[in-house]
Design brief:
By secondary structure, the protein is α+β, with helices and mostly antiparallel strands. The chain contains 7 helices and 5 strands, in the order H-H-E-E-E-H-H-H-E-E-H-H.
């Protein structure tokens, strides 16, 4: 067993979006609405279609995921969503905007070559949430610390 670290938690949360893209074989968009992460697919018309996550729990869909070797990604999505549901609404929202909902941008500097992880700055998240930057930072840090506690806790018998 290894110790759960902040880097491990952040890395797993950052992969949430890519797990969905692996399952759907499409580029997706994420939104945070009413305390939940919504997964949307961009349609050719430019509109976005909401994915019904409950449909992935049906037996025939799970069987197809297994056949297509995508069940591992689905299980990771479920695990991340379970973790997030252990947090307060504000912690979950701050972590969504700061860690989960991201894009990649080209980077050609000495520090990085290829694509660079890009997310919203604390200032923009604070504006979206109607709070100050320091509070956003606190929500993210407290949320990650709580996740470390939850994940590191021995299973109940």
């Amino acid at each position: 067993m290894f110790a759960i670290t902040q880097d491990f938690i952040i890395s797993e949360l950052q992969r949430y979006k890519s797990y969905w893209m692996r399952i759907l074989n499409k580029k997706i968009h994420l939104e945070f609405k009413d305390g939940e992460i919504e997964t949307l697919i961009a349609l050719p018309s430019g509109e976005k279609q909401l994915i019904d996550k409950t449909s992935f729990k049906r037996k025939e869909v799970l069987d197809r995921l297994t056949i297509e070797k995508k069940k591992r990604a689905w299980n990771k999505i479920r695990r991340i969503e379970y973790w997030l549901n252990q947090l307060s609404l504000r912690q979950r929202e701050a972590i969504f905007w700061r860690i989960i909902n991201h894009d990649f941008e080209p980077c050609n500097t000495e520090e990085c070559i290829g694509l660079k992880y890009k997310t919203l700055p604390y200032r923009e998240i604070a504006y979206k949430m109607g709070i100050n930057e320091k509070t956003v930072w606190s929500y993210v840090q407290e949320g990650i610390e709580k996740l470390i506690e939850i994940i590191d806790r021995p299973p109940q018998k």
